[in-house]
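Example record for the data management plan.
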Amino acid sequence: MLNNVTQFHPLTDFADLPPKLAALNTWWRQTLEAKEGALPGRADVDPAALRNLLPHIALVDVLRHPLDWRYRLVGTRLVEVMGGERTGKRMRELLSPPAIEGSVMLMTRLLDTRAPLAFTGTLYWLEKDYVGFTALVLPLSNHGAEIDMGLMGLDFELPV
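Corresponding structural encoding:
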């Protein structure tokens, strides 16, 4: 079994998103429209509007030099599936070098395109069977321009 390695593939057709992630993407697009093209920010994330999705989302701070993210808020379903609380921790503390490399590649793409990013893959965990997942990462900016946060939604396919 591989220890803490993530394999993933970009998802180009957002019509293939699971219902929870499709709802999160719709919320982001409507918020972007209401802000007339300025990226949504942390203040736009209304827990009441996303109530049914909260267990499935994480809010992360984008850190630079080196590129990293820090979990600011992690939904209860994510904590349950990932095997522990992640709030306050950085990606580089939690993932193996190959998973960090892949995550940095995805973050770079998010920062360069300033557009939602979706991908599917498999997570391998120590002492667990594989877990399939679909993820959606939505860029957030507290000032409308530079991406300083991400809103991640994850949907898991657990082994039977």
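Summary line stored alongside the record: Residues 97-113 form the longest helix (17 residues).
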